Amino acid sequence: MTRATGDAAGELFFGPFCLNVGQRLLAKEGVPVDLGARALDLLIALASAPNTLLSKHELMSRIWPDVVVEEGNLRFHMTGLRKALGDGQDGARYITTIPGRGYCFVAPIKSSSPAHVPGHDAIKFRHANLPHRLERMVGRDGDILNLSGRVSKYPVVSIVGGGGVGKTTVAIALANHLAGSFDGAAVLADFGTLSDPSLVSPALASMLGIPVGSHDVRPSLLAYLRDKHILLVFDTCEHVVDTVADLAASIIDAAPQVRILVTSREALRIEGESIYKLETLACAPDEPGITAETILSYPASQLFVERVAASGAAFAASKEDAHIIAAICRKLDGMALALELAARRVETYGLSQTAALLDQHLALAWVGSRNAPPRQKTLQATLDWSFGLLSELERTVLRRLAIFVGDFTLDAAWEVIATPSLDRPALFSAIDSLVAKSLLSATSFGAMMRYRLLDTTRAYALHGQTADDRAGLAASHASYYRRWLEQFGPDWPTLSNGPERLPYFLGINNVRAALEWAFGDNGNADIGISLAAAAVPVFQAMSLFPECQRWSERALSSMGDHYQESREEMHLQAGLGMSRMYLHGGRDALPALTRSLEIAEGRGNAVDQLKVLGPLNMFHLRTGDFKSALQCAYRCSSVAEATEEPSAISLGHFFLGNSLHFGGQLSRARLELEAALASDPLPIRAPGSYVGFQGRGLSGGILARNLWLQGFPDQAAARARQAIKEAAEADHSLTLCIALLGGIAVFLWRGDLESAQEHIDWLISRAGLHSLSPYVLVARGFEAEIAIRRGDPSAGVDGLRRCIERLHASTYEVFTTMLEISLIKGLAALRKVDEGLMRVEKAIQSVETKGDFCYGPELLRIKGHLLGSTSASDEARHCIAGAIAASRKMSARSWELRASCDLAALEADLGKKKEAATILRLVLDAFDEGHDTNDLRLAKDMSMHDGDVPIGIHPPQANGVPRSRQL
């Protein structure tokens, strides 16, 4: 029989375990683990391809290559493997289930052998953005070889050297060389465009495709990288070195498989760092009798000659030329950037004149930069000389282009720097020339070219601007990016990953710079206010809530009376309110949202009102004010209808259906949710995109809950799985998390604990990745309920207490009543009846106050059950009868079924077996589906025994596990 195979000679280490593949032996802290052959095959297959999804079909074909088996066999052996590993105990995580797809080994793993891992080279990282290396790189083969060895040994390797020495070129070449060893993944993060150190982590997160959903993005960044095997290239770090050092230290501590390659003029000086000093290219010495052949064999000479040829010059170096080349290389200290700039001048001025010009400008630089490092003196001299070779038009354009931070387009250049004397043909001609002279770099992003000044060149050009020029350019620059935001802002919610967002993200750097200028000492607050207002929806769509809050507050504080009740104030108040809601969760968000709505209503624009009413509805739900949420939802629906836009109407259906569901109006909720689902997918530029999601996409998970409560357990499960599938395919994390929350609730109510656990793992993974911490807490609460149902009520109760307390502290109350019900069930299992009664009474009062009436019947039933256990049968019967009446009023047949079972048990205890059976048969007749669920099985068993199943006693299932009709 063929077995799953791995590295036959090596050992794999993870957690306390050692897996010897060749010997087919698993040991825990040196002690052999008793593991069946099939389970061991599974472990070898999964551990040999860590962080790789292996489908169920692929695993079954590996483990049973010659036999056709059912999927249940795979689940059986997977359960045994997880039990042997202690997977899920004390926070240990080894194997993750991806529902409907397969399994993935997620624990950090080390191998005693560097042998090839099957399939490893085929893995590609979806957000890798590494540029291709140069076809030929001169004089750096030894550096690449040396650095390759260091990257394999050290978690951080810093390439340190002076400006222009070629650090970035070497880093890109090295990363391309090593990418195949890191799951095909190497990600370049260029920090040279950042002026604010606090943006280092958000910039890296955005390049990795991680939404920045909290004030501190670092936890989600570390969670994302924790199990990744990738190479991160941190480029141009010297101006933010302290922040980068702290981030790098956190990453290598949290993510042992990540390697970091740094380029900087200063080392990070952190533990685990290997510092590699990148020297300048070796130059031929000034020695008598040195031959031209020897001179031209030196790397600096080779680079200069190749760049001269690449510039188009007809050049064949003679013996005399070789000595001139050697002199140029020495004067430029072998700095790659300076050599390239000088080489491009040879076509115009010839070799001798280029050398003469270089001599002149080096002397000027040495006098002017006496306290600068030698290499900065040389680079500064090259820039002085290069600038002197430009025409007056080119100098003007170069100075004016320095207003841009990082990349810009031709359209941006035309809109920002054009003057009456600088028309489009002249501007574009000057840009072409600057690109040819290597003072401006050009990069293709799809069909569009983007341009960028080198950082040193930009600083040099800015120094040449006059105060008047700078003020006029800054105003023009800020106005352009306000228009850019208004034009392209609606596209942002549709961009789901780093490569798609990159061109837009580069534009945001210019928005930040424009905002800094506008609200600075010499800025223009009016321009800043309009720019900040235009930036609000983009910051929200990209989950940049800290920046949204900062600039909204700054703009609002700068407003004069003439901005009162303006469109700008409306957007800024909405941005401030939503940012505070997501960042802090407190009620300090409400005044800003309320003010924004007042302005929208005063302006009479229905779309504007919907943009604020949606966040207000979400705010009330998050804070547990379900009554206010329902009132707001009615207004959302009415305003949406007034827009006569299908996308807005769909959003209105969702808000109303969601609020009606929690309010216990299940029949009406179903109509609204189904109407939202029936709508067509939203177009890219839709009002719904302002709040970051689509009503159609979110409705499925809530409808699944609604269907279960109404007594359609099979339809509920099908709808839940469909909603989760669609959300996963759309790759929208917020939508997926809400679909998972709805689905898990349905699986728990049905008693399908295996499906519930699988989807809980998925929810924890996705929500944790995107800093959606309240969803993680709810998922942990669901896990605690499963622990109670599986016979560990102590652990479950402790876990639920912690989750509920933390959710209260974060003012996230949407699911606290559901978790409170689970906690009370656990207390009952521990026979802590008094505390259970106290908590259920408090929960009933909370429901009456807050308005999440959908849980009311179940709370009354649980109260009756607890009272029945204390012999207060009359009070118990009264509560359970009230639960039945409340269930019928809201058409919650599933709650009615549970309450009817409890009432039948009370009647049976009094000897009224026929009455008990009648009660059960009446409610059972209302169900046309779900006959394999726990609640319906129990009711059928009780009815067949004339109700003679004492309360709290549960008949066994076929496999001997108690079928639990939980409280």
Automatic annotation (TrEMBL):
It comes from the Bacteria. Residues 9-107 form the OmpR/PhoB-type domain. InterPro entries: AAA+_ATPase, HTH_77, NB-ARC, OmpR/PhoB-type_DNA-bd, P-loop_NTPase, Sig_transdc_resp-reg_C-effctor, TPR-like_helical_dom_sf, WH-like_DNA-bd_sf. GO terms for biological process: phosphorelay signal transduction system; regulation of DNA-templated transcription. Keywords: DNA-binding. Coiled coil: none annotated. Residues 9-107 bind DNA. SUPFAM superfamilies: C-terminal effector domain of the bipartite response regulators, P-loop containing nucleoside triphosphate hydrolases, TPR-like. GO terms for molecular function: DNA binding. This is Transcriptional regulator, winged helix family. It comes from Rhizobium mesoamericanum STM3625. The lineage of its organism: Bacteria, Pseudomonadati, Pseudomonadota, Alphaproteobacteria, Hyphomicrobiales.
